[in-house]
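User: Sorry, folds how?
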Amino acid sequence: MDLRAAGHQERCRLLDAETARVAAWLRCLSPTELDGPAVGDWTIRDVIAHLVVVADFYAGNIERGVAGDIEAPEGRPRAGSMRGAGAAAGVLAGATAVAASTADDPLGAFDRSAARLSTRLAGLTDEQLDLPGYHPGGLLPVNRFMLLRAKELCVHEWDVRAPSDPTSRISDLGVAAVLQIIDENIASGSLRWAYRPDPTVTSPLRVSVELDQPVAWRAMFTITDDSVDMDPPFPALDDQPTAGVDATITGDAEAFVRVVYGRLDAGEAHSGGTLVFDPPELATRFGRWFTGI
């Protein structure tokens, strides 16, 4: 799957279908199962509440962006001033509060928020697609909230499935969305957002990545002590330069997404053969740099 070749309305249809698929699975869970564990300190009910919060947040940012308002809403930091480490505690607290307020009908709240976001995305005109919208991770074209929503939906679906099914994988749409987000350095899905600064990186480290399954993807980025800087996306896979590369990562695209989002230990991925880090010690450093968002 390659979302870069899809138009906006086709992307919206793909997101709607994925939303319906995830909702149908959640509806099969009993109330007791909804209170069961997801990955980390979350319950499944917390994850559903977080997806409600995110959908309403994105829909509101699209509405305000179309109206020309790109300022931070009250209580939110200015655009571009936050990274994942600074957001984690507030995200969980917000999800817990919404989970309590929607306890009687969590999936109804999920459906309503998803429908609101779907309407806002599908309703964008050609002239509105690239208008800027607010996000604490940085301003972005309002149409790109589709990618962020696909990332949230599909990665968190894995979070609720994985405890009972260790063979779970992030869906193809989720992997494709995340890789495009990384390519374009978009807000809360970017490597810059996920990276934990490391003062032991005393000189820039150039990393080349080549992945497959379910998305063929190549990228180059530079890691410094406080940032990850992406090279521009390559027009074609064969265009990637190889000069000046300090380290490489090859293998499974879905595993890479889970590693950089803190869902899979990089050393485990390397020893299991789903990813190959060269030199191998890069896997250990990756485990320190990307601990979860």
Remarks:
- Strands lie at 132-133, 140-141, 205-212, 217-223, 228-230, 247-252, 275-278.
- Residues 119 and 159 are 26 Å apart (CA to CA).
- The chain has a mean pLDDT of 92.
